[in-house]
Amino acid sequence: VIATMRDLRKRDALEAAAGAALGRTLRIERLDVCSDASVAECMATIPGGHVDVLGDNAGVGRVGPLESIPVQEMQQLFDTNVFGAARVIQAVLPGMKRRRRGHIVVISSVMGLQGIVFNDVYAASKFAVEGLCESLAVQLLQFNV
What we know:
InterPro entries: NAD(P)-bd_dom_sf (IPR036291), Sc_DH/Rdtase_CS (IPR020904), SDR_fam (IPR002347). The protein is mainly alpha-helical.
């Protein structure tokens, strides 16, 4: 198992929770889903790049009315929540399709199904994640992914 996080300086709690598994059956690697280079570097640490199960729970939130959120902040949120998921899926998908097996689990939010007041941008990003995953699920059936 490889657990990833953007900032390895914050890994103390994860290491403590891992206990004896750390270094034996669990590794912690750096992965910033907003960076193509970081995704490639992380994939390079995986023997053969062979990923059987991808659990993608990277995400950020933002509360506030639409008119109060600068477009640049919206883009950053979408970069993590939507494009980050897409980057990581793109990295593992060719191998899964080639092996004709694998699982991709993307953690979204109820706000990907129904928007809530003052969560406009966050909900929009989660609706995008839902659409991406629903479409992929149908396409990947033929590959047993």
